[in-house]
Amino acid sequence: MRPGLQLNLGTQLTLTPQLAQSIRLLQLSSLEFNQEIDALLQSNPLLEREGDLSQEASMSAPAMPGDTFAFVASEPTAQNVAQQVGDELAWGGRETGPARDDDDEFGMELPDRSETSLRQHLIEQVQLLSVPDRQRQLVGLWIDALEGTGYRSLTVAEFVALFDVKAGVTEAEAEAALVLLQTFDPAGVGAADLADCLRLQLLSLPPDTPWRETALTLVQSHLQLLGEREYGKLKKALNLGSGADLAAVRSLISGLDPRPGRQFADVESQYVIPDILVVRRAGRFVAQLNPEAMPRLRVNQFYANLLRSQSDSPGLSAQLQEARFTVKSVQQRFETILRVAQSLTVRQQGWFSEGDAALKPLTLRQIADELELHESTISRVTTQKYMMTPRGLVEFKHFFCSGLSTEDGDAASSLAVKTMIKDVISGEMAARPLSDQAISEALSRRGVKIARRTVAKYREQMHIAPAAERRRKL
Length: 474
What we know:
Blueprint: H1 17-27, H2 30-43, E1 47-49, H3 78-89, H4 118-126, H5 133-144, H6 156-161, H7 171-181, H8 194-203, H9 212-221, H10 223-227, H11 231-237, H12 243-254, E2 276-281, E3 284-289, E4 297-299, H13 301-309, H14 314-347, H15 349-354, H16 364-371, H17 375-382, E5 386-389, E6 392-395, E7 403-405, E8 411-413, H18 414-426, H19 436-445, H20 452-461, H21 467-470
Parallel strand pairs: 2-5
Antiparallel strand pairs: 1-4, 2-3, 5-6, 7-8
């Protein structure tokens, strides 16, 4: 075959650096986006921030087209046991802990822990220990193995396995360091699970605390019975003579904190900035951009005018081009977010007034077809983007869910069906809870066709126990 040259015509999609930057800015959350903008402002002197949208000032120098972005919003198992016990004892967002009288013994002002992490609080206690350095170091390593709730993430054997053989750390040493950690404040820190956490807190109470020993027996051996509300079996197992005695034991346990570490600040917490605000106008809900999430950017006109008179500054010319493209990319980002938010708001009007029960089935493909965008673009826009609504802060992805057919030929979203299941269960008789088949039949009477196995799947996703475990024997 003789060598030769051939000319072929074709098209190819090339991902330019500018397009890559535009895609990256689109998929960032508001917090990450603002951090990215701050980095660009520091690296490019031709890009600057104007100020707040509410304090817009006129520019002294004439701006070139595309040099300013001033976009205005427009309108258009063990876990199951823990869960059951938490439901039974009404543990929630309230402050928990053993009740104490406000007398001279506890009259001192409690320390402010709102700015202190759990690790910092425990390390401060380690520094006060009068123990050998080796044990102090082991306690510090146990602290590093704690979760935010105060529970430990490793067993003693797993903890020892982290060390090199030459270190010579034995399980007895690791156990001793753990026991020492479990004496720290807050009580319950270093526990392996809920039962262990409650046990440690009960042991920290004075020995003459009423019902302390009975409560210890309950959390160590009969916690599952408490979660299942088997009060008759509990009274028999604990040798209690009356329901009042059992109520006193339950009251003591309900005063404990199932997550002792949550009272401390999470120093790594990041706050959500809503991209969209949903307001009600003329009887309808409309979406608008959040001014606080929108940086107002422009090209520095001093440098831009300087470059017009000097054509021998390739470095500044490249930065000018980058600054103009950044302004354009930011504008495109918010235009796309607003378009998607407006489409979601129009399609899910019922949710804003009635909640999850009125949520309609919706897919990314439907929004992509409506806005003539690619499905991957909709996925980027709806990831880590939030809107502040009259029903609270929600992520865009909350409005997407699958659906089930109804008798009238329409469809009900899976989230709406879950809400119906929860509503049906909340109205059942405590002594005769509804089976999954009975719930399926109840939803059928409401016009929703759903199989028993689907009811079971949704119930498990909502962490609702089966009928046998929901039965209450009073």
